[in-house]
Amino acid sequence: MDERLKEKERDAERCSGNLVLLVFFVAIVGIGLWLINALFETRRIDDCIAQRASNCNVIEVAPPQR
């Protein structure tokens, strides 16, 4: 009986450890995606400024209406 209790405790510890690692992994992936997006945006702005453009804002165009 004592062995089953220890095994359940180990399973609970393993499960909580896996959950912590999953949260950590998701956070790292989210930060990585944010960083990649920031780098692409910075590169776009740098390219625009290097061309001596006076307005480097994104122009949003509405889809054509039918």
Quick structural gist:
The protein is mostly helical and 66 residues long. It has one helix at residues 2-50.
For this structure, the quaternary state is single chain
Structural class per helix/strand content?
mainly alpha
Radius of gyration: 25 Å
Fraction of residues in helix: over 70%
Shape: elongated
Mean pLDDT: 88
Order of helices and strands: H
Report the β-strand fraction as a percent range.
under 5%
Uncertain segments are none
End-to-end separation = 73 Å
* Count of the domains: 1
Largest sheet: none
What is the count of helical runs? Answer: 1
**Count of beta strands:** 0
Tell me the layout of helices and strands.
Blueprint: H1 2-50
